[in-house]
Design goal:
Blueprint lengths: L16 E6 L4 E5 L1 H7 L8 H4 L5 H14 L3 E10 L7 E13 L2 E10 L1 H5 L1 H6 L1 H15 L5 E6 L4 E5 L2 H5 L3 H4 L10 H16 L5 E8 L5 E13 L2 E11 L1 H17 L7 H12 L6 E7 L10 E9 L13 E3 L2 H9 L3 E4 L12 H9 L4 E9 L2 E10 L8 H13 L1 H23 L10 E8 L10 E7 L5 E8 L4 H20 L6 H14 L6 E10 L6 E8 L5 E3 L6 E2 L17 E8 L4 E5 L11 H14 L5 H10 L8 E8 L7 E5 L5 E5 H4 L5 E5 L23
Antiparallel strand pairs: 1-2, 1-5, 3-4, 4-5, 6-7, 6-10, 8-9, 9-10, 11-12, 11-16, 12-13, 14-15, 15-16, 17-26, 18-19, 19-20, 20-21, 21-24, 22-23, 22-25, 24-29, 25-26, 27-28
């Protein structure tokens, strides 16, 4: 019940009929002109039961009793009818409301009534009066909310009156200090500019009302959401004053936010990778509850005692903050307070001055970002899945924003825990994928050490599935001292593809190792194709098989190779553009038609030149021609050609941002036998031939065709489309 007596004279000229009663008998103490025009002169100081003797008035008196007893405003929106004051046959219709109000004579009731006769009798008349009626309705709604909201009046000179008090109780700031622009001081820093802009827009675009939800600092220092509404009262075409209300909606706002965020957290179900699931979960908190959220995956769930190692796997920040550092899976050891959040399974809040972020809680790269973002607090929240802490979320408030309150922290923690099911699924998929990768790597051997050349290989599993795949590389020395080198790809990403890959790889090794020196790579692939058909493998596969032999004293080598439908190898010279080892008529892939002839090609490889074998995961982009990806590979290899071979392989595989398919790569580089820029080496014919680095980039290619025997086989499948020599040479 309001304690400050209402000054009723403010309603003298209001278009709404206003009356004020006082005391338990509801003695009438005030009526305005509009009230007397609607109901006629009613004697003041008389109880309501006597002032309103009309039939049906007992319901009005009962409403007054209920409002005074319970202190809750009531509205009667069903039209009421009375005989006009002149006593004629015409009736008037009205609706009214009753609100608790303080009077000089004690608790009382403020009665507001609106004449609805015109609306009921004439739609045309109601249309003519619609503008005035709308303004009246807004003032009426403001009056109806007076019992539960702060009501204030701002005059044209900027002074303000608080009709229904409550500002100081909410903010701790006396209302006179809020007049003018003082009320902006208690608004949340991140809301202040928008509120001021909204108010300026409303004042400029009259008669546009002002309505906005924002945060106000309460007496306890925390922030609460309020809704402010204000409408201009126009006189002579301009605003004479603004009347408005402010209501505390923190509980209502938080309940709606909680429902929305929990629904979003529970919807994190489509992520195939744990990193994507954690990123989607972090995005549910930003920007509604925090400015930034990063997730750090623990190496060992529920790690206790000793060092606790975590890896940053996701980060999301609201717009307007500095760009986040890239997710390079930075690993760091948790500091004391971060370990406490993990061991106690409770949030830990760290407050600090603007940009003075303490070290140890996060990786140094994250600390530097928080300093740039002028962070003022850091909240560490454990993420528990199936009873174990699997990750740590770090949220921060930036750009001078105050630290989160207890309710915000509790809601952040609750949202993070809601996504148990999708996180469990993503983590299980990640563990299965890790196991598959270990199995895949076990099938790939380390390249041998050979004199006169360097070898390096890389395997990078695809990120879009959790199964083993059919990509492989291989290199081994043959009995005659030459080197066998192979790259291959079996269609599919499942256990069957991996099994077939292992069988083909083992058979190719056996065939290449046991055949005499004159056995060419084309012969090896042909026999492999025949064996695969005879053993019923019948799986579509591509491969490049090569034999490399040393030629001459300058460190040069020669490569004999045969390509079964695979992307062409790349030869990167010491200077000049790379070129593809590609034939005009590419041989068909394996397991298509063993009767088709295969061709062996020969190319010299000079000292310092690099031969690259790779699978299509390195160059293939959905919706793009394969040649475009191979061209990018050639350009990147040329730019990094002088790097050590292992570093070059790491660079080329690391350039692929979205590894949708497995990547296998093996590279070969002869080491110079002398520092001389001009050497003598044996050419393909065995004769000593003068050459230099400038001439080694001009390669002569010879080919030999492997004879095949005709035998029944499976139906021929079309050869896989591959680029030939149409890229820059």
């Amino acid at each position: 019940m309001p304690d400050t007596p209402l000054t009723p004279e403010v309603f003298d000229r209001a278009v709404v009929a206003i009356a004020l009663t006082a005391g338990r008998e509801h003695r009438l103490v005030y009526t305005n002109d509009a009230f007397r025009e609607l109901f006629g002169d009613r004697p003041l100081g008389i109880p309501a039961r006597e002032v309103f003797p009309e039939p049906g008035a007992e319901r009005f008196v009962a409403t007054l009793d209920a409002v005074l007893t319970y202190g809750i405003a009531r509205q009667v929106t069903a039209p009421r009818t009375l005989t006009c004051p002149e006593g004629g046959t015409v009736h008037r219709h009205f609706v009214y409301s009753c609100s608790p109000a303080g009077t000089a004579g004690g608790p009382g009731i403020l009665v507001a009534a609106i004449d609805t006769t015109a609306e009921l009798h004439s739609a045309l008349e109601a249309e003519r009066l619609s503008v005035e009626r709308l303004q009246t309705l807004r003032r009426y709604e403001a009056l109806m909310s007076a019992a539960s909201q702060m009501v204030w009046l701002v005059h044209t000179d900027g002074t303000a009156d608080e009709l229904v008090p409550g500002w100081q109780a909410l903010t701790g700031q006396p209302f006179p200090e809020a007049a003018g622009t003082g009320w902006l001081d208690v608004i949340h820093p991140q809301d202040r500019d928008e509120v001021a802009a909204r108010w300026a827009d409303a004042a400029r675009d009259l008669p546009t009302p002002f309505e906005h939800v924002f945060r106000i600092r309460g007496r306890d220092g925390g922030y609460r959401h309020v809704r402010a509404r204000a409408v201009p009262i126009l006189r002579d075409g301009g605003p004479a004053e603004w009347i408005g209300t402010t209501s505390d909606i923190e509980d209502q706002w938080r309940n709606r936010l909680r429902e929305r965020l929990l629904a979003r957290a529970g919807a994190v179900t489509e992520a195939e990778r744990a990193d994507d699931a954690f990123a989607a979960l972090a995005a549910t908190l930003v920007p509604d509850l925090t400015d930034v959220c990063a997730v750090y995956l623990l190496r060992e769930p529920d790690a206790a005692g000793g060092d606790v190692v975590a890896t940053r796997v996701a980060a999301v920040a609201r717009p307007g903050l500095p760009p986040l550092p890239p997710i390079n899976r930075q690993t760091f050891t948790l500091g004391e307070r971060a370990r406490k959040a993990v061991s106690d399974r409770t949030p830990v809040v760290i407050e600090f001055g603007h940009g003075s972020v303490p070290g140890g809680s996060l990786p140094e790269i994250s600390v530097r970002w928080l300093i740039r973002a002028r962070a003022t607090s850091l909240t560490l929240l454990p993420i528990v899945v199936d009873g174990a802490v699997v990750a740590l979320a770090a949220t921060a408030d930036c750009e001078g924003a105050p630290p989160p309150g207890p309710a915000d922290i509790d809601l952040q923690h609750e949202v993070l825990q809601r996504a148990q099911a999708p996180l469990r699924q993503a983590l299980a998929l990640q563990r299965a994928r890790h196991t598959a990768v270990v199995l895949q790597r076990a099938m790939l051997t380390t390249p041998p050490r050979i004199g006169g050349a360097d070898l390096a290989a890389r395997y990078r599993p695809g990120s879009r599935n959790a199964e083993v795949g059919g990509d492989w590389y291989d290199a081994f020395t043959l009995p005659d001292g030459s080197l066998a080198m192979t790259i291959g790809d079996v269609a599919g990403h499942d256990l069957a593809a991996a099994t077939t890959m292992g069988q083909l790889r083992a058979m190719l090794r056996s065939i290449a190792y046991t055949r005499p020196h004159g056995h060419t790579p084309a012969d090896t692939l042909r026999e492999l194709d025949t064996a695969a058909e005879g053993l019923g493998l019948g799986t579509f596969a591509t491969a490049v098989h090569a034999r490399l032999t040393r030629h001459g004293a300058d460190g040069a080598w020669e490569v004999e190779w045969s390509n079964a439908g695979h992307p062409p190898p790349v030869l990167v010279p010491v200077t000049g553009p790379p070129r593809l080892l590609a034939a005009e008529d590419a041989d068909v892939p394996l397991c298509v038609d063993p009767r088709r002839p295969r061709v062996t090609h020969r190319d010299p490889i000079g000292p310092g030149e690099t031969l690259l074998f790779y699978t299509d995961g390195l160059v293939e982009v959905p919706g793009e021609h394969l040649n475009e990806g191979i061209a990018r590979l050639c350009e990147a290899a040329a730019e990094a050609r002088h790097r050590p071979l292992a570093e070059l392989c790491e660079h080329l595989t690391g350039r692929v941002a979205d590894v949708r398919d497995d990547i296998a790569m093996i590279a070969f580089r002869p080491t110079p036998a002398t520092r001389s820029t001009s050497t003598t080496r044996s050419g393909p014919t065995g004769r000593a031939t003068p050459t230099s680095h400038a001439t080694t980039t001009s390669h002569a290619t010879t080919t030999t065709r492997s004879a095949t025997t005709t035998r029944p086989g499976p139906a021929t499948r079309p050869a896989q489309a591959r680029p030939t020599g149409d890229l820059p040479r």
